[in-house]
Amino acid sequence: MQLVLEKRAERSNTIALVSPLIAIGLTIVTMVVLFAILGKNPLLALHAYFIAPLTDGYSLQEIAVKATPLVMIAIGLSLCYLANAWNIGAEGQFLIGAVAGSWIAVKTQGTDAGAWVLPAMLVLAAAAGALYALIPAICKVRFGASEILTSLMLVYVADLFLDYLVRGPWRDPHGFNFPTTAEFDPVATVPLLIEGGRLHLGSIIALLVVAAAAILLGRTIKGFEIRVVGAAPRAARFGGFNANQLIVLTFAISGALAGLAGIIEVSGPVGHLQPGISPGYGFTAIIVAFLGRLNPLGILIASLFLALTFIGGEQAQIAMKIPLDVTKVFQGILLFYVLACDSLILYRFKLVFSNRQVSRGAG
Amino acid sequence: MALVEAIILAVLAASTPLLIAATGELVAERSGVLNLGVEGMMIVGAACGFAGAWLTGSIFIGALFGIVAGMLMSLVFALMTLGLAVNQVATGLALTILGIGLSGLIGAGFVGERITPAAHLAIPVLTDIPLIGRVLFGEDGFVYFSIALIVGVWWFLYRTRAGLILRACGDNHVSAHALGYPVLRIRTFAVMFGGACAGLAGAYLPLAYTPFFIPGMTAGRGWIALALVVFSSWRPGRLVVGAYLFGAVTILQLHAQGWGVGIPSQFMSALPYLATVIVLVLISRARTGGSTAPAALGTVFVPDR
Fold this sequence. Notes:
The complex is a heterodimer.
Chain A: E1 2-7, H1 13-37, H2 42-51, H3 57-82, H4 90-107, H5 117-143, H6 147-167, H7 201-219, H8 221-231, H9 233-238, H10 243-270, H11 281-291, H12 296-320, H13 325-346, E2 347-352
Antiparallel strand pairs in A: 1-2
Chain B: H1 2-30, H2 38-56, H3 59-83, H4 88-107, H5 133-137, H6 141-159, H7 161-171, H8 173-178, H9 183-209, H10 221-231, H11 236-258, H12 265-269, H13 271-286
Helix pairs in contact in B: 1-6, 1-9, 1-10, 1-11, 2-3, 2-4, 2-9, 2-10, 3-4, 3-9, 6-7, 10-11, 10-13, 11-13
């Protein structure tokens, strides 16, 4: 008796809808076991993770703030993944965007530069992120180099470059030798939506990005081409779609969005450039993209959920001394379950009773 | 002369984890499975390896812990990609994300602890030969093992029937299946071998390279190992060359920082990563007339019955 996979005649729409929910359920069950192993009360831990952050206004705002970079990066990544182009270096594009935008903020510091500063920072950051993402894209289409490896390698390069800047030329002279730039001037800061709150203009930009992506994918020919190239490369060739051009395009868009997310994070919640501005947004966004089924609306919901795990993780650490790494384990396990459940959209399990083992084995 | 010897020793030490991890991944990829989770398996191997050595006081048991940890991680990967036919790229990424979290969790209690690093071989007279003595007869056990490993893998892949079957699975799983070979089972073993190697390579870092564990200490070596497999065109001989070249680049940047070359240290530290990008471009460009990758690499296979 054996459990085997069998291809479904057509994809199951029911499972497509419920699979993210099953995945979240299975992850929570796994987390209960993990908390028990760590010697923590699972119910209290789950409460700290998923309920407590939803009960006060400050944490709710903080979830939206954390979801902002996630949703922007994940939307870009989803375009890449739909076109079957594997950009996994969003973390690097995020950092380069932050660096490029900060350049204007640092250079105009203390001058009477006007309201043009922030828009210029946003534009430059998006352009820099896009250019940085074009490196792996062009290496891929011109030379056939694996975009997975090159985009990932460039994350380390971007990280070191940022480190050099804030320890060297851009270090705040009055910063007691801490590796950070001076606090940005008000004209170089993303405005808050509510005075004294945490929500900032970036969240509105993120919502606009979601809407734009929904229109691009659902209502335009380019969006159609992106989906066809990924889902049916042969059909795309017959249709005359240029796959290479689409790889370059999706990489550029995703790099621009990651760069934009980077500068918004730095000039908003953080307020200055320093190492460690990202708790791995670029990588968590990969999970967001898959959990959201590469669909703009799904990604919006998924980003809020993963932002909740970041905030919940911090609260669980403070309240119950649960290590922050549990959040990463949680996110990794979640991605596993999401992928596993997605498999059931195309396949189903079947019990095979007749033991029709082929006798000519390896050996 | 002492400096030359020191540099060669350092290059060998820096290359060994790359060589071990890349050897394992080469076997997995030759069977048709692209496991991008090498970095995750390595870092868990590092944490478990250090934990094992610290708890038992034995480097050997530490290495075994690392191997088992890597294998368990790869088993999860095999279950997903071979059992459930999930996309290999996405699963590999998930494995790396999970591994980084797990290693932090496992290693948290061991940060700041030290162990006695793996002993180096010492043969009277031979080890004392100037210049080559310590290079040839004074390494730690991992270095010798890594060389035996790659020779063994070469022999297995090109000189045994099982190796031929494994390569057949990687080049055309439909034909291999039609001939009656259990493609999924063979791939599972290949992936587990890759996991064992990645775990051992990770364990090498806290057991021999530095005698302590720090979170994230693999620092992208798993990804460089993946790039090395591409660089080698999936051939064991070239893999050795590639691993030692990359070890040399790593050591070069460390020494350049020591010599006080007027370049900021961060730029020198970025060198191995930039070198990886450049090498990938050059090697991919140099290949004319089709790819040398196993033809079925990274593709899903669900046997029809």
